[in-house]
Amino acid sequence: MTILQNGTLITPAGPQRADLLMDEGKIVQIAPHIDFLECEDTDEIFDASGCWVFPGFIDGHTHLDLNNGVMDTADDFASGTLAAACGGTTTICDFATQDKGGTLMDALAVWQNKAAGVSRCNYAFHMAITDWNERTKAELGALRAAGVTSFKAYFAYDALRVRDDELLDILEAIKPFHGIIGVHCENGDVVNALQRKAVAAGRTGVENHPVTRPAEVEAEAIDRLCWLGRMAGIPVHVVHLSTALGLEVIRTARRRGQTVYAETCPQYLLLDESRYHLDGFEGAKYVMSPPLRSPHDVAALRRAVENGEIDTISTDHCSFRFADQKAYGKEDFTKIPNGAPGIEHRPALMFTSFGSDLTAMQLCELLSTNAAKLFGMYPRKGALAEGSDADVVVWDPEARWSISAENQHQAVDYTPFEGFAAVGRAKYVFVNGTLAAENGEPTAAIAGQYVAR
Ligand code: URP
Ligand code: ZN
Ligand code: ZN
């Protein structure tokens, strides 16, 4: 048994000064005062005074142990989930990606194998559908039985994307069981054409990355997704929203009565496109898709977070080392592996940067509860409630520290947030009732489990 005493718990009913008792991986009691003498075998008591106690944070969008066709990401499930736990994330939703010509169940088996036995935090899988056909469609029942109810499709990346008619068919196929699909919204044809033109004109530097993926490319694809969702009559989920234009499209769809879920990421709320103009090849650290945007976009997205127009903040963690992996695109920006690290730092970045502009309750929703609801894990995850899994974060709002490649646990040689002065830190992180991290450092526990939904 483990007791957290004297914390302020962020419960579904609101903040509450209370103690919390965990046993056998579950939250078994929440009460104003739990006296450890009443519990015969209480062996661990943690003082949470002065701290917020949250349901473990959920990162709804990570890419661990992913091969992009040329190279593997720097983080695998061992390092990525360790880093996640150090920062306060107790569950990730990663992507099992179907091989062209392959089956969904094979893809799930491959990703289960990558994660099992090494994960420091819990993991669920969205299924990225890249090859839609009758055989794939026939697998949806088996996939559901295996705990996968959320999906991903790409409008960009030639090796991954599906056609519009295929996406419509996917939407119709997942509708009967209320499946949800997150879509990478960029017009792939237009990106390809802009990239070809840039390279043909000798514009091969990293500053051309955002130029060839303009805001309109995102807005058009979001619009298309919304209309396809309307035709199929189901909600849609826009992942990694990065632009004010895209936000406007989502608002329009919502105004006409559609349910459109929106995710954004810390990088689109804190960094802007000026990073692509840093000296030398430094800008490659920020090559991700969609790219970083203008200060106007950043401000619009921050307001949207504050207004409740954004449902979840995830990382899109997809790490490649600067020294030997980003370098692959030194002569041609189109070859720079896309993605950046962030799985460890999302909670601290968001607590620090939104400060008192968001309540603890709102941060809880953005970093945990809404993802649990959207992806079919609530109230097992995403809630401090009796009977819920004992994924718990004790958050010390007074802690001061600096984000740096030197102190991070992500297995990569940089962080886009180098030098960021963080306010607040995960003091204790429990995964299924086991202490997984303390003050930003891991314990020896490997307590992560697969979350079947
Ligand atoms: O650049 C990124 N974000 N790479 C990861 C794959 C994706 O687009 O989500
Ligand atoms: Zn994407
Ligand atoms: Zn992604």
Brief descriptors of the model:
alpha/beta; TIM Barrel; 2 domains; 9-stranded mixed sheet; 8-stranded parallel sheet; 13 helices; globular; binds N-(aminocarbonyl)-beta-alanine; binds zinc ion
Tell me what the structure shows.
The chain has 453 residues and is α/β, with parallel strands linked by helices. It folds into two domains: 2-54 and 380-403 and 415-442, Urease, subunit C, domain 1 (Roll), CATH 2.30.40.10; 57-374, TIM Barrel (Alpha-Beta Barrel), CATH 3.20.20. Helix content is 30%, strand content 23%. It contains 13 helices and 17 strands. It has helices spanning 77-87, 104-115, 134-138, 140-145, 164-174, 188-200, 208-211, 215-232, 244-255, 266-270, 295-307, 346-354, 360-374; strands at 2-11, 14-23, 26-31, 44-47, 52-55, 57-62, 89-97, 122-128, 150-154, 180-184, 236-238, 260-264, 312-313, 392-402, 421-431, 434-438, 441-442. The strands form two sheets. Strands 1, 2, 3, 4, 5, 14, 15, 16 and 17 form a nine-stranded mixed β-sheet that branches. An eight-stranded parallel β-sheet has the order 6-7-8-9-10-11-12-13. Helix 5 packs across helix 8 and helix 8 (215-232) runs parallel beside helix 9 (244-255). The longest helix is centred in the middle third of the chain and has 18 residues, at 215-232.
